[in-house]
Structures
1.
Amino acid sequence: MSEQDTLRRFLFENAGVRGEWVRLEKSWQQAKKFQLCVNDAVESQLGQALAAVTLLSATIKFKGSMILQLQGNGALKAIVAQASDDRKVRCLVRSEESVNPGTLKQMMGEGHLVLTIESDISEPYQGIVALEQDTLADLLTTYFKQSEQLDTRLWLFANQTYAAGLLLQELPDQQDAQKDWERIVMLANTVTEQEMLTLDCEEMLHRLFHEEQVRLFEPEPVEFSCHCSKQKISETLLSLGKVELTQLLQEQQTVTVGCQFCGRNYSFSQDDIQALLDDLDAMNENNFTRH
């Protein structure tokens, strides 16, 4: 049976390198269903981001989620991809009505990549790198170099049907680490888009690394899931502030807010908006009292 919507971890037994492979099909189809991808080039960038954040979320031990954000001043304005520790993924894209196909940098212009780790038990961690590379894979390589973490490389591909990725990362404190790393990356560099999008993990690892001793771990399922809620949308409305909320209350009988990730709509009556305004007043009063 073909491996879809699956993440696989693997380890090189005699080299200080670990790896991950992912290929998304149904989860990719569901995630992009709610997004307006104006052409194949934009769709590919969105799929690459979804594959990348799935791989990256599996490199850290945490309970929570990882968010990958690309923002620029070009025709392709923003891409957001998110993956939770239990491999639930979602994504969104924002662009002008027309985007000339090109590299990531050509489409997005000046901008930056932001990686955020939201943990259930600690404050969010955020890392930022300027959007100065042509591909997301190269951008992430730069990010890992700048944040002085372990050598990390990614290979990312996506089309209308699949989004796939390969990640290699060196393990800390290994003898002959550089030599092993260079050899394995050189082998990985021979992978093609066709292989990444069509071969199952075991086939691909054999094709790339048949002379290495590779231990492959059990598959982990990946699925599209949106964790939006009326409470979270309420928090977004609160962030608009008192003036804008009061204006909404005066102008509309019902305020409808759609989730950008899954298209679900949430309705707020005038009473709901008034309750939010009361919450704002209470919060402001508490802040004033504390000061």
2.
Amino acid sequence: MKKLTRKNLARMIDHTQLKPDATFEQIEKLCNEAVEYGFFAVVINPSYVGYVRELVKDKGVKIASVVGFPLGAATTEVKVFETKDLIKKGVDEVDMVMNIGAFKSQEYEVVEKDIESVVEAANGRCVKVILETCYLTDKEKVIACKLAKIAGASFVKTSTGFGGAGATVSDVRLMRKTVGNDMGVKAAGGIRDYTTAVEMIKAGANRIGVSSSVSIIVGIKQ
């Protein structure tokens, strides 16, 4: 892997603020940082999408929001409604949580249909499927990746950041090996420094979801 510059690392970062107590002031700060440092996208809770759209309009920053977050336990119909509503409000990307309970029950057709329905509702937008890998065995991680790929998702993503653990290098490597080179892998959850971010990229991640984005890249020479 070539040495990362600040610019090309920034274009792999989803600058994220999903805390339940996030204020409008914090969301505005998030957007201003994304514009200043050239992050690929901001990831925010659905209620902020309209506000964020005006803050980053025509400034080269994508808007991503979440569906079925953070448990993945909403019905497919609700996830579809959430997705369509987000698209209507102006999001570019959707990060959805897989139905973890159905998956652990080996109801794989239910899981695949759930993802496929969100992909269809997204109408061509990028859909990332959050597997919440801390709850899965390695065998289950492989199955989940395959289901997401069959269902037409654009990315598989490690974690919500609200589960028992976040991204690991071994999980990212396994996910990349499973989906191949024609699907994205997003590492998210617990990535707080440059070294860890680079380890995730070396393992196969082509997108990083972090809230510590600025501190990760400020020490990098242009």
3.
Amino acid sequence: MAYNSLESIVAYCKEHHASFYEALLADDMEERDVTAEDSLSRMTALWHTMQESAASYDSSLQSASGLSGGQGAKMDAYMKQGESYCGPFINIVMKAALEMAESNACMRRIVAAPTAGSCGVMPAVLIPAAEKWKIPDKKMVEALYVAAGIGQVAAERAYIAGASGGCQAEIGTASAMAAGALVYLRDGSPEQICHAVAISLKNLLGLVCDPVAGLVEVPCVKRNVMGAVNALTSADMALAGIESFIPADQVIDAMKEVGDKMDVSLKETGAGGLAFTKTARDFEKEFRAAHQ
């Protein structure tokens, strides 16, 4: 089956009177030739791994570069002052995104969703949502199928790697996956899921991939926060009935077009953007010299 468009997933849902999740479960069963139980067991394991990874954050750890570590704890301390602009739930999401992205930089176990560099987005919104609204694991696992289907279509029609299409392909896709999953958790329709995908991805079109010293730490860790918060706002707009004028599949196609036109210096080469600033180049020289 292997869906190559969100439109085809919606069509399956209508034809079979199925949910978005059921369409993706059927796809996985057919593509990997497994039973529903086997498929669900594997996805459940991923959900539990995501939860365990979030719970194992250690604020005392520092990455080998020294660029990452402790930022999640700083966000937590600020949040507890009760004076933030964003409020408690958004603060929790921001903290969770920082922590997971930092854990990745510190070589801790993470779930790439869809990549290691964007691993903080999905857990940052899904785990706090599950805890706040007491959503059962079964529903959360179903939401992961929704996210996986969105990521599959993005990978098929465009790309999910920063080296191929810029950070729009990594954080952008992760944000779209998270937004669609959030809509599903609130029993949004397949069409609303697609609008959330379109809105979230449109917001991040053109985002370049410019990691300092080639490390997914600066600016990547903080971009995970942006992707997570963008997913929340996009999901809320879709659930409110706000629609994307441009259909989701066409937004994904636009992402590919933008990525194809993006200069190679802005696609994880370290030759442009933030990676080519004086501060970044000075740091890279020092880092390389210290690790030769």
